[in-house]
Amino acid sequence: MNDTLTSAATPSVISARQVLKSFKGQEVLRGVDLAVEQGEVACLIGPSGSGKSTFLRCINHLEKIDGGALYVDGEMVGYRRVGNKLHELRDSEVAARRARIGMVFQRFNLFGHMTALQNVAEAPMQVKGESREQAMENARVLLTRVGLAHRLDAYPRQLSGGQQQRVAIARALAMKPRLMLFDEPTSALDPELVGEVLDVMRDLASEGMTMLVVTHEMAFAREVASKVAFMDQGVVVEIASPQELFEQPRQPRTREFLSKVISTARG
What we know:
With 267 residues, the chain is α/β, with parallel strands linked by helices. The protein is built from 9 helices and 12 strands. The protein has helices spanning 52-59, 91-98, 116-127, 132-145, 161-173, 191-206, 218-224, 242-247, 252-266; strands at residues 14-23, 26-36, 41-45, 67-72, 75-76, 79-82, 85-88, 101-104, 179-183, 210-214, 227-232, 235-240. Helix 5 runs parallel beside helix 6 (191-206). Residues 2-10 have low confidence and may be disordered.
């Protein structure tokens, strides 16, 4: 990790400048630039292997960047500057910052031995020190919010994939995050279950939640996003409003990708 980062110049919720990340000598992120403002819904689209999921994991410090600058709410992700040097945060400090960021993965990662209610209440009790009574009540409210008031006592094995993913969203919301990251949240679902998860995400967007969504759901990106970023080969090729990017993309690579994706969807 280099030590040449400068302080964040804007109050963006996410501010990424020339973010670099390699695995075993292979560059995955080759200088990612992106800003997401409070209340925005930004969608990341692009071919598989373009670095979208890796970038999301860097925002939550599940992966450490190798260079560039990455801030969440004006704070450097994973590091603190002392003079001209960068010092990696302790695990407890990373966990405290990570608690402000909700993340929903492709796979649901629910605790199989816990009910939906217990899955949602667990982190607030363990991480934030909420009382069991308070955490359980908040969990009931959140599960009702995602349409699962009738499944509070169901175990993951008793829930459909769409229901499990809605529990996972409620679990992330239980930490009262300022930012929600979604990593292809519908990719593991049967097609008929995709809509119920996207409906919950639409509701969050309408309520002003700041969201960064990696998705292959082009109709969702077109409808809900404030802006759409097209990534390819580890860089952001183009950022624009949904209307501009889908109807009048400026870059040839964006046009090529969209022509294939849209024609496949129609077929």
